[in-house]
Amino acid sequence: MFHQYKTGVAMMFALVFHVIALLLLVKTLGLFAQGLLDGKDDLVSLLIRSINTLVIALAMYELGLGVGKEYTAEEAGESIFLSIRRTITRFVGTVCIALVLEALIMIIKYSQLDLAGNLYYPVAILVACAVLLLALGGFLALTRRLCRDEMEASVMQQRLLQLTEAQMPVESASSRDSVAGKPSQDSHHQTNTGGSLTALG
């Protein structure tokens, strides 16, 4: 009961994240079309803002996908650890792309407005992005051996399952042959017994 409740709540949050991603996608397309029609902003800034919002929508999608897979991977026979490792890698990579684009937008904006004194904000964002990537690399390096062990165990389990499935038809066929051969042996024994009784008579 508790497992079904936990899975249901996780699926609900995954659905919320997917809906947010779709809303961001629709809003980005609308703002991009409106910006092209108005002509107030230059095309480069408009493209960068649109790409930034699309990357955030992609991050929401990856988050919803990861939340959903975390609670359904065990039921599907997939390793939870491997699923979380892939999800974290994709999510952190998407967030880093969004941060770099945001820093690029700020640099362009401050350069156009002659606000060179505020450039330490995008520099701080880039440093935070680098720290985040270093942390991701450390996480992947520390969990590489455990991931390899999980993959080897999963491969061995699949091979054992395939061997078991391959042996089942052979065993069933041999059992059918033994069952089919038993009546013939009984009839042969009865024939021999009848012949011996006739000879005695």
What do you see in this structure?
With 201 residues, this protein is an all-alpha fold. The protein has one domain (2-163). The protein is built from five helices and no strands. Helix 2 (43-72) packs antiparallel against helix 3 and helix 3 packs antiparallel against helix 4 (120-142). The termini are far apart. Keywords: Membrane, Transmembrane, Transmembrane helix. Residues 174-201 are annotated as: Disordered.
Summarize the structure.
Residues 190-201 have a biased composition (Polar residues). This protein is mainly α and 201 residues long. It has 5 helices and no strands.
Note the main attributes of this structure.
201 residues; mainly alpha; 5 helices
